[in-house]
Amino acid sequence: MIEAHEVRKQFGAVQALGGVGFTARDGHITALLGPNGAGKTTLLRTLVGMLKRDHGSIAIDGVDPEREPLRVRANIGFLTDQFGLYERLSTREYLTYFGELNGMDGAALRRRIDEVSEMLAMGDILERRSKGFSQGQRIKVALARALLHRPRHLLLDEPTRGLDVMSTRAVRQALARLRDEGCCVVMATHVMQEVSHLCDDVIVIAKGHTVAQGSPRALCERTGIANLEDAFVSLVGTDEGIAA
Ligand SMILES: Nc1ncnc2c1ncn2[C@@H]1O[C@H](COP(=O)(O)OP(=O)(O)OP(=O)(O)O)[C@@H](O)[C@H]1O
């Protein structure tokens, strides 16, 4: 479980997070939904301890990522917007390297790489070097790395961006399976269809503040609007400000 309370983060004059609070439960896929610049990436980075918050509290299964970063990271798979691939390594070599960094080795690691590769439909790029990989191929490798050590928490920044239809389906199925196994999945996304069909819970974030949290149905009921996209627009408000 991930709990955040009144989290704030400032970059110079820019207040990226002005007071974000939410709970993301185990066995749930929680969507982080917000306009461009709302603070989603900043929030994910702060949750894993890559950024130091200015204010507020964060607990990942009760542990503060700033106090015990290694303990928390061992239990987190993080897909960031920067993939950090090594172009000279094949996908298998790359995953082997990160698996070993996470204490995995031998036949068990080889089996796990094959398992993740099948889960993400990436058998065609497993033995290829990542130099020249397309955006979709890059994201698959980064996602495979995030899943490899079977983390209890997954924090994913737009995991299906740039993926074709088949790969998107493979990733969504993989996430649903992980949810069913009890993982706590938090994903930033702009794809409303993904939120409606895949996510159990939605955190709506705008201008660095949590505007609402609830199931897609609850958000629609709260706004009195049947369509999630319209309900979202109503919740984040117009140019004049954020709707109450
Ligand atoms: N390192 C940084 N230095 C300065 N400003 C930053 C930095 N990182 C983020 N910001 C600013 O903080 C705000 C939130 O950015 P963030 O990337 O978290 O938004 P986002 O919700 O992920 O947006 P998008 O949907 O466009 O990816 C933006 O105004 C952004 O310009």
TrEMBL record:
InterPro entries: AAA+_ATPase, ABC_transporter-like_ATP-bd, ABC_transporter_ATP-binding, P-loop_NTPase. The keyword DNA repair does not apply. Belongs to the ABC transporter superfamily. SMART domains: AAA (SM00382). GO terms for molecular function: ATP binding; ATP hydrolysis activity. The keyword ATP-binding applies. This is ATP-binding cassette domain-containing protein. Signal peptide: none annotated. The lineage of its organism: Bacteria, Pseudomonadati, Pseudomonadota, Betaproteobacteria, Burkholderiales. Keywords: ATP-binding, Cell membrane, Membrane, Nodulation, Nucleotide-binding, Transport. Residues 2-232 form the ABC transporter domain.
